[in-house]
Please model this.
Amino acid sequence: MRGPDTRSRLGRRAILSGGALALAFPHLVRAGEPAGPRLEVFGTDPQNLATPKDLFAQLITPNDRFFIRSHFGPPALDAGRRLAIEGLVRRPLTLSPAELRARFPAVTVTAVLQCAGNGRALHVPRVPGVQWVHGALGQATFTGARLRDVLAWAGVVPDAAFVTLAGADAPPRPSVPAFVRSIPLARALDPTTLVAWAMNGAPLTLAHGAPLRLVVPGWAGDHWVKWLTHLRLERQEAEGFYMRTAYKYPVRPVEPGAAVRPEDMRSLTTFPVKSLIARPADGGRAPAGPQEVAGCAFSGEAPIRSVEVSTDGGRSWQGARLSGKAEAGRWQIWTHRFVAAPGRASAMVRATDRKGNAQPQRAAWNPSGYFWNAWHSVAWEVL
Ligand SMILES: Nc1nc2c(c(=O)[nH]1)N[C@H]1C(S)=C(S)[C@@H](COP(=O)(O)O)O[C@H]1N2
Ligand SMILES: [Mo]
Model:
């Protein structure tokens, strides 16, 4: 089976060296860092930058190599920007980031952050939108207050059912809808849902949502609202483009290219089971003898149960070795070793989670190109 990383797809974007990145986005690169490909550019206005795939063989993605995506670009940096908790609460209030940190216990979770559109470029037929291949993905430790502690302090009124989330970023023109998302109250009360101020032990950078962002482990990136300014308790889901039209997925599988009626769509929540090969790189070369294949595997639904690798085009599959903690919404690293003679070598990977969800051979096409998660394969030349 041919790997999906075809050259024409990779050709659609450039790799920015550390030096060029520093010029384009000075806040992303610290002075004195070695130059090298740090993030891959999929858009500059607003910035859409991808994590290089070789980083998916390590448990933590460093902050300066962690993908960046937003609809309108960041607002001004305001370290004291207040967060309002309002709507169906007994005690509407606003908190500065300092007050939030002082008042609630700090909790740290390690979680995958993945854009729903990651892999969009691999759906056939092609779907419009940012043509992410694999890199709208990373894993970090996030530190913040539990959203449920914050909500308990404000006192949620019984008929509240959703939390509507808004950030300080503004659309470029009044005619463009604002980025406003809702999550059900049950998900807001999940102990892993955080209002975070730190990522991998460092204060959040502006690109990743400073001073405060939401962290919703297991759920697609669109729920992880950055530059958070408002938490509004409501009876119903928010209206507006980003809830009513965007981030919708067919309730039943559809034919590739089919039009789907709005009533047959539901809002995205968890991302499905997926594994990727971080190394070796597709199209590379390696000396004959022992080969090591490695990557990550995760599911938003449940911890990973197993990862299997085929090095004979899918005829046989071997269990890979897993490392890292098994948790829903958190990736584990898998490795597999085999010996290859000179010629063409290939590897293909598939994962299954503990709810029995199996990564499919082909990803389910859908009108917005979300959640590509087909078996991933690479091929390289053994010398
Ligand atoms: N305020 C705000 N938050 C946002 C967005 C946005 O446009 N505005 N984009 C979301 C999307 S679609 C994704 S995938 C993640 C990306 O987070 P990152 O840039 O920290 O990787 O942020 C989310 N949070
Ligand atoms: Mo996203």
In short: The radius of gyration is 21 Å.
